[in-house]
Design brief:
The protein has about 250 residues and is of the alpha/beta class. Helix content is about 25%, strand content about 25%. It has a six-stranded mixed beta sheet, with helices on one face. A five-stranded parallel beta sheet has the order 3-2-6-1-7, with helices on both faces.
Amino acid sequence: MSARVLFIGAGPGAADLITLRGVRGLAQAEVVLFDALTDPALREFAPHARWIHVGKRGFADSTGQATINALLVKYANEGAFVVRLKGGDPSIFGRLEEELEALAAAGIACEVVPGVTAALAAAAASQRPLTRRGGGRSVSFTTAMTKSGALHTSGSADTEVFYMAGKQLAALSRRLIEMHWPSDTPVSVVSRAGWPDQLHSDHNIATLPRAAMLHAGRPTIVTVGAGARALTEVNALSPTDACASRVETL
């Protein structure tokens, strides 16, 4: 491999959600710079590498972005094969651009291995397809947390998925109503998507604030609109026939 740095999407939760290409890349690593939400079990795929925690949560950085950039350049210039292990998919709210730019400025070759993003894990956990034939043809991904504290929703997609939404549920409910979403629009909330303890609850926009305590302190994905609607075919089945899923309706 000609690249000195490999960005790998670790997936949204448990270690077995990483891609096969990601596992193969980890096996070659000499240094791994890893995020806070990556599964510690991933170390089994690179047991001889030096693992360095560079995680951050929200905007309270435990490792500043400039420091991460400098570490990538430092270890690559020292001749190590570096893996930058990011939760979910590197290109979705992973601050990939800053790190690519730092490597490009230093003349260091790199590659990116995609991963499963949290929105897809939440859709799988809740059995709510993000697109629906005839009624859900567009999906938007939005961060519910911005540095300015503002909440943004376009209202232009049939389904809107909000990342990092756990502390923003009441504000998000108000903002959606301000953007003329009907208050009875279905909302699906999944916290710790992709982990064994993932939790799913169903709401509508008006009742969304009730999810705050249920999902408190957990990384949370909020899906609004067509992709949050429960499947009528599943609802019509008996509990013994329907696919098993942990769901609470508030």
